[in-house]
Amino acid sequence: MKDARARTRRWPMITAMVLGLLALGAFGLWRWAVASGSAGTLEWIDARFPRGAAVELAAQGRYGPDPAQRAELWVPAGQTFAEPAPATGDRAGAIAHPLVVFVHGGGWHSGAPEHYRFVARTLGEAGFATALVGYRLVPEGRYPAMLNDTAAGIRWSIGQAAKARVRGDRIALAGHSAGAYNVLMMGLDPQWLADAGVPESAIGGIVSMAGPTDFYPFTSDSARAALGHVDPPQRTQPIAFTRAGAPPILLLHGTADTVVRVRNARRLGEALRRAGAPVEAREYEGMGHAGIIMALSKPFAQGGIVREPMIDFLRRATAPAAARGAGEARPAASVPVQP
């Protein structure tokens, strides 16, 4: 009897040890996957962790003839799609989730929307619908193709929102690394959205996660392959388009990022403040390039140190006009990374 009780007491400890070992192994796999560009491994790991709320696929399709020109719209589970969403989301009894368009990274040469569904799951838990937008990759996707595609993907997302009881009148853009570059260019240089027929007023805010913003001369093969042919090269730099009329921007960056140095966020933040544009910034001490996107996953959320300020900003950015406060920039913050 005593042996049975002892074995029963040991099971929780054994289970915790096994889960810890699995988490360590998953962490190693995750870091390897990000470094090697295999974001699909990241998605596979996250999908196996339970969450408090689920998301479901509301739309999936292409916005252009190239196979890479595709996107997905994910909404919090339980949504119904029988009627169009009201423009403001204030119809009695209507469900109209705010929309975030997320654009993946990968150095403009790798990545796919389906590899970043963990972002949709995380944002879905907070009540957001998430469009995951792909774009043509190098060589077909070199500048300006990736920007034209991002704008077209945003247009597709807004169009699908109207069919899925999702608010598309005031959306937010977000991206990691190369994807952060793409969405920053959408907000800073008005030509891209204008060419796609997307009103500039539809963009309530932009989140840049480890985004390259001031990186000429080009020092990486990825940047040279995607942007090296542009003359003058300054046209490719987000910092060249800082303006007072830009939408509110949140810059998230790790101080230990050796792929896209934190100076990119610092320089853009300073330039936006000088221009009178609303900008917020958070630096994560000791966090690398992979860590910033890992923190949107369930197993590596680190207590929400990236997720929570991002969601707070997104709520303000997508709020109806009467409740909007994203334009009121908050002070920059430096956040220590939890071990």
From TrEMBL:
Identify the residues that the record assigns to the BD-FAE-like domain, covering every copy: 96-272
Q: Which InterPro entries match?
A: AB_hydrolase_fold, BD-FAE-like_dom, GDXG_lipolytic_enzyme
Is Hydrolase a UniProt keyword of this protein?
A: yes
Record's keyword terms, sorted: Hydrolase
One Gene Ontology term of the molecular function aspect? hydrolase activity
The name this protein goes by in its record: Alpha/beta hydrolase fold domain-containing protein
Organism name: Tsuneonella aeria
